[in-house]
Design brief:
Blueprint lengths: L4 H7 L3 E2 L7 E2 L10 E6 L2 E6 L3 E3 L2 E2 L4 H15 L12 H20 L11 H9 L6 H16 L5 H4 L15 H8 L6 H8 L3 H7 L22 H20 L16 H8 L13 H39 L5 H11 L2 E3 L9 E5 L4 E2 L4 H15 L4 H8 L3 H12 L7 E4 H21 L3 H4 L7 E4 L2 E8 L5 E7 L1 H21 L6 E3 L6 E3 L6 H8 L12 H13 L5 H8 L4 H10 L2 H24 L7 H11 L6 H15 L4 E3 L2 E3 L26 H4 L5 E3 L20 H7 L3
Parallel strand pairs: 8-10
Antiparallel strand pairs: 1-2, 3-4, 5-6, 7-8, 9-10, 11-12, 12-13, 14-15, 16-17, 17-18
Helix pairs in contact: 2-3, 3-10, 12-17, 12-19, 14-16, 15-16, 17-19, 17-21, 21-23, 22-23, 24-26
């Protein structure tokens, strides 16, 4: 069946098909042949751009027949064609459909070696569907980043393909895939991450796959190429695929480049695929105390480091440019080392939150390659030299050369070599500071990450009523709106405008989340997930991977703080979050329940306590029954890694459903259901008397777990926002 005449007859009601090459429709306000359409969606004009990436070296517009088919798929999807359950009626829904359609085409080309999608068999299509339980979000996201980067670069990616560095010294002609991924904001720590990028481009894979990359796998980390989609995402992916299959079957003459007469994926097949998918995609909530610490430290980081670092950056770059002008043929990296040896940048510490920092390079922060033993040796050599020994005497003593001794003394005398890490100015400005700013903006505005990431220069304004920030509202509303802003938010926007200014001058794009690299004109995009771990480590939040930090967590955190600490009403919260259904607002509040987050924090804190005791003192006190139980656990894990130790304790606690309470000498597990009968202080159904517990009362109790070096702390007190000393309260009220 090539022509479905009945279907075409019905379609003529909504689309004028008198000229198939130039159909006319009320919803299409542009000529069909244009590569940028203006569509009328829900009474509003919207632009759809068909310059989509098919491959690193190929756009959809480079394949006219395939482009025409894709255009027809979009047009048939926005009208009531009766081939699909629901017409697409928003820019976002069309954009997502196009992304999934491009992913389907790439899959056929790379995995099935089918250049023309119309030649795909039913078996191939079902093979594609069966793999949708694995995440495609990364590849779709990388494609979008790549397309944006191509546009910023005006299509010129030559700096990645062939570099002529230092022509008087040597030629380098390798494709710098790591450099490209860095500019796209994609982690470069393993081969599998390269595979994710290669999956958006067969020419990248074919042309540069043999450039010496090692198949490195980081132990203990699940790679995102193998991450599971949620069942809801699978259904959406298959729904887009079924839309394409139904339209291709119903209108084969209009969609000649799509496989026709292939039945859609059935509900039975969808259920089978969903069995392999993740049942719940909701991010696990971060405990209140951890969120509070993250926000407070971020506020302090912004106020302490923000403006001073920008001033030091501008001063350093001006001086470095003068140095480079005098030595134009020098290697930039070597020249930067020479500059920082003579011009280290110092930033004072802040209270107990941040240590003093010496910046020793422009680029990333790295761990020192020298060991503590090396630094001790350099110190000994320097002392000998200061006491009157000659270089020759010291060289003879250490059985090395005088030049080596001189180098050791120089390293000892360089102040920045005395710190454990080489701190990079770019790390603090373009990673740490931007992470802190995004977290603070996500919290104080309660906006989604996509909305924060769309902020433009000039978005902050001040009137008689205060500061206002102009932002896009995604999902249901999809409009620009103004939100009240604090002075801290104004400071954050001004910092972003100053950070992004050199990049915006190069790209012509007003987006605030881009930055120009320190020593060249390359422009990079900031991404939260690629920079958060290093930042959290600096501000003192350990093991951030345990908490599944995401930008959306700060939106939820705002909900809890607004109602529980600022006394806001649920209805006001619903409006500020721009929820259409108040039930969703209540779900936010339930997810940030202090009881739940306090329990989670206490459990993790207790694992830290047990791990610390095991590391410092070895076994637990076997005089108590619970101590003997933990000894059995400790003996079984003495030879495994630190992370496995934590997991073993956590598993043991989970199996017995152990409830910890803090007492003067350590921990009490008397309120654990299976252990209540053993507690000395419990009678009947009452709880363990932990608040009044003392050494005499708890002596000999089998539920007492004594701990070495134990300092009793009331964790509940740490989960309060005290108006007198809260950094968050002060940031809200500050007028400076």
């Amino acid at each position: 069946m090539r022509v479905n005449k009945i279907a075409l007859k019905k379609l003529e009601v909504v689309i004028d098909l008198s000229n198939i090459e130039a159909p006319v429709c009320d919803k299409l306000l542009s000529p069909f042949s244009d590569n940028k359409w203006i569509l009328l969606l829900n009474g509003e004009k919207d632009e759809i751009d068909f310059e989509l990436v098919l491959d690193c070296k190929l756009l959809l517009v480079d394949e006219p027949e395939l482009l025409k088919t894709v255009k027809w798929l979009v047009l048939l999807s926005v009208v009531d064609s009766r081939a699909t359950n629901q017409a697409l009626d928003s820019h976002q829904s069309i954009k997502k459909y196009l992304a999934k359609l491009m992913y389907f085409i790439r899959f056929l080309r790379w995995q099935q070696d089918i250049r023309n999608p119309k030649n795909a068999t039913s078996e191939m299509v079902r093979d594609f569907a069966q793999n949708l339980y694995l995440t495609t979000a990364h590849n779709l996201g990388f494609t979008e980043r790549f397309q944006a980067h191509v546009n910023i670069s005006s299509g010129d990616l030559s700096r990645y393909v062939k570099k002529s560095l230092y022509p008087e010294v040597r030629q380098q002609t390798l494709f710098n895939i790591e450099h490209l991924m860095f500019d796209l904001g994609i982690p470069t720590n393993s081969w599998s991450n390269f595979r994710e990028l290669a999956d958006i481009s067969d020419s990248l894979r074919d042309d540069y796959n043999s450039k010496g990359f090692r198949n490195q796998v980081n132990s203990g980390k699940k790679k995102s190429v193998y991450a599971l989609n949620t069942t809801g995402t699978v259904v959406k992916q298959i729904s887009a695929l079924n839309r394409t299959l139904r339209l291709a079957t119903r209108y084969p003459d209009l969609l000649p480049m799509m496989p026709s007469d292939i039945p859609p994926i059935s509900n039975c097949e969808i259920r089978s695929i969903n069995k392999k998918a993740s049942s719940n995609g909701k991010t696990k909530d971060v405990p209140f105390f951890i969120m509070k610490k993250a926000v407070e430290r971020s506020i302090e980081f912004i106020l302490h480091y923000g403006k001073p670092l920008l001033e030091k950056r501008d001063d350093a770059l001006e001086k470095f440019a003068k140095l480079a002008s005098f030595k134009p043929h020098y290697n930039t990296a070597d020249l930067a080392k020479e500059y920082f040896r003579k011009n280290t940048i110092t930033v004072e510490g802040y209270k107990d939150s941040f240590p003093p920092v010496l910046f020793t390079n422009f680029d990333r922060t790295t761990a020192k390659t020298s060991s503590e033993a090396d630094r001790n040796k350099w110190s000994e050599v320097a002392k000998l030299r200061a006491s009157g020994w000659t270089l020759k005497q010291i060289a003879d003593e250490y059985k090395t050369y005088k030049s080596t001794i001189s180098n050791w003394i120089q390293k000892h005398n360089e102040s920045h070599d005395k710190q454990a890490r080489n701190y990079g100015l770019a790390t603090f400005l373009y990673r740490h500071l931007m992470v802190a700013i995004e977290m603070v903006l996500c919290f104080f505005t309660a906006r989604r990450s996509s909305e924060i990431m769309s902020l433009k220069a000039g978005c902050i304004s001040t009137t008689e009523s205060g500061h206002w920030i102009d932002m896009y509202v995604a999902k249901t509303y999809q409009v620009n709106d103004q939100f009240p802003a604090t002075n801290l938010m104004k400071i954050c926007i001004e910092l972003l405008e100053e950070i992004s200014r050199p990049a915006r001058e190069i790209t012509g794009d007003d987006n605030l989340w881009q930055y120009k690299n320190m020593t060249n004109d390359n422009v990079s995009q900031y991404w939260f997930k690629e920079n958060r771990t290093e930042y959290f480590a600096f501000i003192g939040i350990k093991d951030d991977y345990l908490w599944q930090f995401s930008e959306h967590q700060f939106r939820r955190f705002f909900a809890g703080v607004f109602v529980n600490h600022f006394g806001g009403s649920v209805d006001s919260l619903r409006y500020h979050l721009r929820h259409t259904d108040i039930a969703m607002t209540f779900e936010y509040l339930n997810s940030t329940s202090e009881d739940a987050t306090q329990e989670a924090f206490t459990r993790i804190a207790m694992i830290d306590v047990l791990e610390e005791h095991n590391r410092q003192s070895g076994l637990f006190d076997s005089a108590s029954d619970i101590g003997e139980k933990f000894n059995e656990c400790a003996k079984s894990i003495t030879s495994i890694t630190e992370n496995r130790v934590r997991m073993a304790y956590e598993q043991f606690i989970k199996e017995d459903d152990i409830v910890f309470e803090m007492i003067e000498e350590g921990l009490c597990v008397g309120n654990t259901s299976c252990r209540k009968s053993k507690s000395k202080c419990i009678s009947g159904n009452e709880m363990a008397h932990t608040l009044s517990a003392n050494r005499e009362q708890c002596h000999g109790c089998p539920n007492k777990l004594p701990l070495a070096n134990w300092n009793y702390k009331n964790l509940e007190e740490q989960c309060l926002l005290n108006p007198e000393d809260s950094v968050i309260f002060n940031a809200v009220l500050a007028n400076r």
